[in-house]
Amino acid sequence: MKKIVIAMLVVFSVALVAFAATSPEKVNLAEQWGLDTKKPAVEFPHAFHQTKNECIECHMTAEGGALKSIKTGKEFNPKALVASGDIKKGKTKNPAHDEFCWECHKAKKVPKGKSCSTCHK
């Protein structure tokens, strides 16, 4: 029985490392979303967030992929929001902040989680 448990842990660990290796360490959100920015683009520290959160907290599935609104739980499509003008250069009040970033930072009690300089560096 002990050998089975150890074998399962080894398999799980290898699978976890392999899955994590396919995720980017950082994501330039302006480039990813097709957004022209006024402030420095957010270099989203994906690897850091993976150490603090489960994938399903930000993505529609545990495998990653499509994002979800932290506020509503529905799919969050930033490229479409940029295309529609809901997310645009110099506009602080936008769905990226309100439904995604700030909503999570508020729930997780991130120090200065709504301060521009926390993410726009």
Which helices and strands appear, and what pairs or packs with what?
Blueprint: H1 2-21, E1 27-28, H2 29-33, E2 43-44, H3 46-52, E3 59-61, E4 64-68, E5 75-76, H4 78-84, H5 95-107, H6 116-119
Antiparallel strand pairs: 1-2, 3-4, 4-5
Low-confidence stretches: 13-20
The description of the largest β-sheet is: 3 strands, antiparallel
Tell me the strand percentage band.
5-15%
Counting H and I runs of at least 4 residues, what is the number of helices? Answer: 6
Q: What order do the helices and strands follow?
A: HEHEHEEEHHH
Strand tally: 5
Helix fraction, binned, reads 40-55%
What is the count of structural domains?
1
Give me the Rg, rounded. 17 Å
What structural class do the secondary elements suggest? alpha+beta
Terminal CA distance: 51 Å
Q: How would you state the average pLDDT, rounded? A: 87
Question: Based on CA inertia axes, which overall geometry fits?
Answer: globular
Strands of the biggest beta sheet: in what spatial order? 3-4-5
